[in-house]
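We modelled the chain as a single entity of 400 amino acids. Its sequence is:
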Amino acid sequence: MRVLSLAGITLLALLGCSASSNAVATNEAEAAQGRSRAADAASVHAAPTPEGTRPFQTAVVADFQAPWAMTFLPDRRMLVTEKAGQLLLVGADGRQRVQVAGVPPVDSEGQGGLMDVVLHPQFASNGQVYLSASQRGPGGKGVVLMRGRLVEAGGAARLDGLATIFRATPFIEDSGHYSGRIAFSPDGQHLFFTNGERQQFEPAQDKRATLGKVLRLTPDGRPAPGNPLAAQGFHPAIWSYGHRNLLGIAFDGAGNLWQQEMGPRHGDELNLVLPGRNYGYPRVSNGDHYDGRNSPDHKAGDGYEAPKVWWNPAISPAGLMIYSGSLFPQWRGSAFIGAMNEPGVVRVPLNGTSAGQPQFWDIDGARIREVEQGPDGAIYLLEDGRRSSQGRLLRLTPSR
């Protein structure tokens, strides 16, 4: 019998149990090597729930070209980004849409494009919208943070005064792992921004680079005063480091910051983000390098912050939402994560700073790029729009 620990919850799985029967799975090569895993995290591979037992029904709201992210306006309309560089203002019913003018060209090669879109906490009074995107600049390419004011007139929409307020450093000649997720702190005083390590490994541990980091900024894009590592010679914007490709970040109702990231070959993670902590990449990871080299696993006392949950095989997580609505009261406080490698959506129950057993649903074979909670309490999913996913916006409501 195999015993694994998931943030303090013991899971027992029969060695003969398969991944398709709600098992805790491990990679066959890892099992052959006999390597142990960290005591405070578990490799979780939740089995798809049969369609007939889904606790929700799905409805198609709209269809897009490779959408990346979305956010809701106070009047229930939506802003949706598309990878190629379009920002769309979409009606609540998905039928009306206007392309928002004023968005500069982006570099959409590889994993690049127009990425996240988030409203300022006082959007209703100031109209400010934040975007992230990959762009070319001195040294190559990098992720940037932009801010502008949404203006509508005569059936048209534009972003006035859109300006870049932060650039990742350094820019490099590569087209992967930009990350670019944005989240405001509950008090609205700080903006958290993720910078991927750009498939370069060591920048995640480099004190001066912003790559492979969670950053804490002021709303105007400056490094926030009091960041925990500035006095140690780190870039003054850094909040935590040792990350890989951070494609989801969100606060829970208690003010805890959660983040999910793609591991190397397997080892995808859900992390509780704590100030000044080193999350280990590339020095430790519960996955391995794509060229077959072993990466030391997280283990107690190694000086690195271990994930609360990790997955092997990989799910390729994208998007992160922590549910607080009324349509699914049984899921309040749960994290929802899009999955692209094994297409679907994952729910992870959270309890304070601990995480429970994940639950996975296949969403008709679609890669899910984004998960958002709507003003109506419904759960909205954006399909990735590639590898047979159509790029649709789906609305999940309780089954009748």
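As a brief sanity check on the tokenised model: The CA atoms of residues 17 and 23 lie 6 Å apart. Residues 2-398 form a domain with the Neuraminidase fold (CATH 2.120.10.30).
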